[in-house]
Every structure is written in C-alpha cells, then in structure tokens.
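Customer escalation, tier 2.

The customer says the design service returned an amino acid string that "doesn't look like it belongs to this structure." They asked us to rerun it and document both sides in this ticket. The original structure tokens are below, unchanged.
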C-alpha cells in the first residue's frame, strides 16, 4: 500500500500535537502561496502566506527552531526548498526532510534538555 505525502503529514501533525500537549515542544504548520479571505468592501481579498519553498512545519524545542519538510518516499526537494534549507541552516536553525512518522520519531525531538 502506497502512503501519500498527505497521510505522512497528518500522522506527523498528530504526533507533534501530542508532544505539544505534553509540553515537550511547540509546533506550527507553515503554508506558502496565497489565501483568499472574505471581508471588507470586496467579496474576498488575497493575502500572501510564507514564501515558496518554506518548510511544511516549524518545531521549537528548548529555544531551537527545527524546520521539517514532509515528503513521500518518492518525493523530491525543489530548488526553492533547497534555498530555504540553506537559509535556515545559515541562520542557526535545523532542517530535516521527513518521509515517515518513524523518521520524525527517530530525530530525537522527544529528548529534551528539561
């Protein structure tokens, strides 16, 4: 059975939510592109989200930012994602490509300095 990127992302988000509820870390789902919001004098207005290539998830544990890019087993990293990875690392953040829930569990997020 082929597991999709959406299924991997959903499983990782549930795991991260559980850890956040235990006080182990905080996490945010990052979205790139544009969104259309209702309101104002217009029926909808467009807002810009994160830039193209931004990682899917940001985890902060013990003051350390960790960006996670979720991919399926066959998923490829784009040029914009590589650029984002370089920028994140150059600025002191960690960056990981995750292709399964097990990979996320294996990177040691649960091991905290606390």
């Amino acid at each position: 059975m082929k597991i999709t990127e959406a299924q991997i992302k959903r499983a990782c988000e549930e795991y991260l939510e559980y850890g956040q509820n235990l006080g182990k870390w905080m996490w945010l789902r990052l979205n790139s592109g544009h969104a259309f919001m209702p309101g104002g004098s217009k029926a909808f207005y467009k807002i810009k989200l994160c830039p193209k290539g931004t990682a899917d998830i940001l985890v902060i544990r013990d003051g350390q930012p960790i960006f996670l890019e979720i991919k399926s087993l066959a998923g490829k990293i784009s040029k914009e994602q590589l650029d984002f990875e370089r920028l994140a690392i150059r600025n002191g953040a960690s960056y990981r490509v995750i292709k399964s829930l097990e990979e996320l569990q294996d990177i040691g997020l649960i091991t905290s300095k606390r």
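Tier 2 assessment: The sequence is consistent with the input. Helices lie at 5-21, 79-90, 101-106. The longest helix spans residues 5-21. Sent an explanation to the customer and offered a walkthrough call.
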